[in-house]
Amino acid sequence: MYATMHEGPGVAAARAMAARSRAASLDLGQLPVLEDQVCAEAGLWAPDAARRAIVQAGGDVPRAVSFLKVWAATLPHLESVPVNQSDIRVTRRISSAYQDIPGGQWLGYAPDLAPRILSWDDAPDDLDEADVLEIGGSVDADAPSRAEVPRVRDLLDDLPLKTDLDAVDGADPAVGMPIPPFDRATRAGVLARGETASLVTLASLILGRRREAVLAELTVNTVSVRVPHPRTGEPCVVAELPVVEADTIIDAEVDGAPGFAVGWGVSMGSIERRAISLALIDGAIQADGELDESIPLDEQTVVGATDGSSNNGFVEHLRLPHFASFASYVAQARNGKREDL
Amino acid sequence: VTVQTVAGIAAEYGRSESYGYLDEGTKRNIRRALLKALAIPGWQVPFTSREMPVARGWGSGGLQVTLSLVGPDDCVKVIDQGDDHSANASGMRSLICRTTGARETTRTAEATIVQSRHRIPEIELTEDQVLVLQVPHPEPMRRVVGNEIEARKRHADGDYTPAWLELYDDEARNGGPRGGADHPVLVEGRTLMSPSPIPRYDVLRLDRRSHPILLGAGRKFRVTALPPYTRVQPLAFDDRPLKSESADGPCESCGSETSYRVPSSGAGGSVWQCTDTDACRERSSR
């Protein structure tokens, strides 16, 4: 079901999904987000192995990540073919830059809709499972493929834009750590395995210093990965995994006037703050070349950088609508462009 | 001597949470900070910003301000970008009304408290209404004076040279301020303040309003306030006044050519659309 970020049937469906996910965690003792995080940081999609690693590490996340990495290090590596756009199913899609986007917004599973209040009640939520299923529907049943959904960032084409579209294949960090300097694709691959809290901290430091930053598009997808068949060479699906992708729009100076840079980030799993952080870091590098603005290690910066609730909330607030304030910056950038003509 | 608290009385009557969600101590702290902020218009006053059931940066400051004011006779409107039905705004509105018994509304004229993110309602508020704004960055000089203590000294001295220099630099190189929303304002010609990321259209409507404006920045533990009829001017050179945003067409829904409009992709391609949904609806129904 497509919906805007408005209260309505779409939000009701998303709330039901959030409630269902919470109920599943309570009932089965599953920790799906933690498994996601361990897989993403290890650069290896293996939720069952991740669960095992988390238990054996006693819940120590860096140690669990290490278990997975050590396990994968000596396994054979198969080269996959680039993911086909039609092999990506979009299960959630939102934009904070525009009120309406071509193709519509699809809330999907939106954990923000559940209030952050600790429940002391051990009984499972009094949800009628049938009702929940009926409202929520199946997540993937009517999900369109990426090939059918236009890119929001393409709406920016008539604005002053800083772009670095190198289409080279990056080096694969799974087969060995690349040597700097990195091209953009390699950097994206290396950073996609970054530790979640570190990415969020960096992104939060960057975000606090920008004039403008919004999410052009954030999607949660199910992606089919193909490898060439050993005999026929035909690409065959060998794995299906969730992937979260974000495009950020950041203020940039284009030929001395206000304009934009588009940052991109993608991470395995569905932890959105990872993709948003990656896209913010990439956007800042697009905007400024190097991140040449020095971040001082003074007391206020150090104390601020370690405030997890503040950093996570701040980075994730990009999901909130920003169309009124974003339009204000766009109007300014357009004026500059018009006066040039 | 036993001191009876509202929370205590509530507990006696079997309520599991205190009136208005927050405990009385926190509410008192916020009210004191607000009184101080009203006494020094535009000044950033620290307060005990609690961890709220919405994430920091999601309106936790505005929510705490509203919860410290609201009573059972109030009528509350919460908007995000001018829209009552945005999921986060509607979540906060239900939390406020569920925990206080206040009425919910989407009509600006009916509300006693309007909590807003990034917009000031286009239907003018009256003396008996309160506007609460959610603020991400209370410090207007954050980009030019990175150090908070240094910034505070400058506020105390009324020395806003770095902000003026930034504006001069923008004018000289770009022919106008380079930012969009959140243009800094001078309060009573004295204190530089962030009006929150409202568009320039709204910044130009801040002067001498008949109702108080309370600004809460939960992530930064600060409140700021503008008492009624405060003089508020955008930071600008005398011969280079701040200009409002311009739109290329009237609103698709109500036809207004004077409202704040943003591009939107309607059925027939790109159109302009009001962001204040209540004002737009009022205009359409007239």
What secondary-structure arrangement, pairings included, does this model have?
The complex is a heterodimer of chains A (341) and B (286).
Chain A: H1 9-28, H2 32-42, H3 47-56, H4 61-73, E1 88-94, H5 129-136, E2 161-162, H6 184-191, H7 196-207, E3 213-228, E4 235-254, E5 257-268, H8 272-288, H9 299-305, H10 308-316, H11 323-340
Helix pairs in contact in A: 1-5, 2-3, 2-4, 3-4, 7-8, 7-10
Chain B: H1 6-12, H2 24-39, E1 45-46, H3 60-69, E2 75-80, H4 87-100, E3 103-104, E4 113-117, E5 130-134, H5 148-157, H6 161-174, E6 185-187, E7 191-193, H7 200-203, E8 213-217, E9 222-226, E10 232-234, E11 261-266, E12 269-274, H8 277-285
Parallel strand pairs in B: 2-3, 2-4, 4-5, 5-8
Antiparallel strand pairs in B: 1-9, 6-7, 6-10, 8-9, 11-12
Explained architecture:
The complex is a heterodimer of chains A (341) and B (286). Chain A starts with 8 loop residues before the first helix and ends with a helix. Chain A has a five-stranded mixed sheet. With 341 residues, chain A is of the alpha+beta class. In chain A, 39% of the residues lie in helices and 17% in strands. By secondary structure, chain B is an alpha/beta fold. Helix content of chain B is 29%, strand content 18%. In chain B, helix 2 (24-39) crosses helix 3 (60-69). The radius of gyration of chain B is 20 Å and the shape is globular. Chain B starts with 5 loop residues before the first helix and ends with a helix. The relative contact order of chain B is 0.15. The mean pLDDT of chain B is 93. Chains A and B meet through helix 10 and helix 11 of A and helix 4 and strand 11 of B.
Q: Which key phrases capture this entry?
A:
heterodimer, A: 341 residues, alpha+beta, 11 helices, 5 strands, globular, B: 286 residues, alpha/beta, 3-stranded antiparallel β-sheet, 8 helices
- Rg of chain A over CA atoms, rounded to whole Å, is 21 Å
Mean residue pLDDT of chain B? 93
* Beta fraction of chain A: 15-25%
Largest sheet of chain B: 7 strands, mixed
Reported for the largest beta sheet of chain A, the result is: 5 strands, mixed
The 3D shape of chain B can be described as globular
- On the 0 to 100 scale, the average pLDDT of chain A is 85
**Helix percentage range of chain A:** 25-40%
Q: N-to-C terminal Cα separation of chain B, in Å? A: 60 Å
Largest sheet, spatial ordering of strands of chain A: 1-3-4-5-2
Which range best describes the helical content of chain B: under 10%, 10-25%, 25-40%, 40-55%, 55-70% or over 70%?
Answer: 25-40%
